[in-house]
């Protein structure tokens, strides 16, 4: 469709003297390309605040912020690097976001690195516990940032070191008798008789001095007519907020994203607070992916939840469970059973320890089908240990000598039966082998030593090019891992088209269990040939076709022609019978008089006169 338009444009260029004249317009209605364009100074251009998208065929509003509506990746370029227009399949519109494996923070997309992973800058460190400040890049790896403690493998939480510091759980208050006050979410001294009352900051309604009274966001602007503070004029000629900020719904002012310098009035996201002049989330409250709101944290594992991040108070291996049918379909937090177990003493989903890691009780050790136990080492410390008769390979306790059908973890354990692999937790025949009598025997194409091994019906062990493999025997054809009999007559029933093409040629297939010539082919001399009519080029008589009179045509001088005994009848464009009649076999009248008697008479006269 649009290639046609390009062609049209090229044609216009060839026919016009000035390229500019293609776009000349006098009013908006004349501008159909790019779609949505307007007429400005005689040219069809995108309106202010819009940009060209979809290969220059349409105009769309520029999408300067994370979560802005977009149609084309290009629109999201304000996120600087690794951005995309994230769409559901089949949707034309999506939202600006970072590409998978990247996350947004203060105006751009960063490559995401989890705890212990390689990093170059602290901005890259972000784990399942979404807090851009809880990890820092230290000596090229993401580790817990200063002021954060590692509660368990890879989980960094903000530590409260004094009365009044923010907290969610008692464990966050890292001083003697420290506890978390559940109504103020601040650390208190549980032994102190005088309870600490924090000064609760009242959120006053935004009566901002920076910000216009009427909508300015999106208004057209230029170098000569700039935007009112704090808006900036974008490259597409519209007023936008600076990177790290987004407009309020009224479009009158710019609000701070989480992580951007901010006043109280600009930091308006759900639960967002200003700390050290930056808009952020309270201690151990996680950041929403939109980087505007904070995620409400749960305090008890039984608390109701809506999303997984709400449960991350209990660690990365916690999720918001399925709706509880017996309790008004309310969802509550739970541990991921494959990764962790609920530890009520420490109030968290305790990750299983791997083989060789320290433990206190058997249940600390990695879950799985095998009984992994916590054994004391020489120093009296508990270590997760593989059961006897198994060896620790890459953190798995592996055995050996398993035969076909036995439960396994890795292929190297399946040693008892030849040609087996560990698949879906069982020793099974590897590709190219089929199970038969507790053995794995070669299928078509797999190596063999003798015919008896070849498990597929009608296969034999054939030596070709130095190696012996199972192949269909001579009277059979291979198709779909099966050997099918070669046909000896075209009326024999078939199962696959290969049987027909071997016998009748490529113009045939197996339809309704019988070999059929294709519509544009005909059956002659035991094969299907392309239908070749009178006076059409041919290479052999079998190709020549004349419906029910096909036996009257032959290939002469590379053209299909009537054979000697059946003269050509021009009037009927067919080959006449030897009696000069065009007989239609099976026809009711059986014969029709030929008007070309005249032709014969003329021929006779010709002979007589010369
Ligand atoms: C703040 O604004 C909300 C809604 O705009 C209003 O209901 C509320 O009364 C306001 N509060 C103050 C203290 O002005
Ligand atoms: C193989 O041949 C045997 C005996 O002719 C028959 O019973 C069996 O069903 C065949 N197997 C397959 C897969 O066709
Ligand atoms: C092959 O076709 C015949 C005749 O239609 C049928 O009886 C037979 O079951 C088919 N064989 C296979 C393996 O499908
Ligand atoms: C195949 O068989 C079906 C049902 O018997 C019939 O409707 C169909 O026309 C047949 N197709 C051909 C190509 O003969
Ligand atoms: C055989 O060929 C015809 C067309 O030539 C096609 O319509 C039909 O689906 C084919 N049948 C099979 C079984 O491939």
From TrEMBL:
<feature type="transmembrane region" description="Helical">
    <location>
        <begin position="591"/>
        <end position="609"/>
    </location>
</feature>
<dbReference type="InterPro" id="IPR006149">
    <property type="entry name" value="EB_dom"/>
</dbReference>
<feature type="signal peptide">
    <location>
        <begin position="1"/>
        <end position="21"/>
    </location>
</feature>
<feature type="domain" description="EB">
    <location>
        <begin position="98"/>
        <end position="156"/>
    </location>
</feature>
<keyword id="KW-1133">Transmembrane helix</keyword>
<protein>
    <recommendedName>
        <fullName>EB domain-containing protein</fullName>
    </recommendedName>
</protein>
<keyword id="KW-0472">Membrane</keyword>
<keyword id="KW-0732">Signal</keyword>
<dbReference type="Pfam" id="PF01683">
    <property type="entry name" value="EB"/>
</dbReference>
<keyword id="KW-0812">Transmembrane</keyword>
<feature type="domain" description="EB">
    <location>
        <begin position="386"/>
        <end position="440"/>
    </location>
</feature>
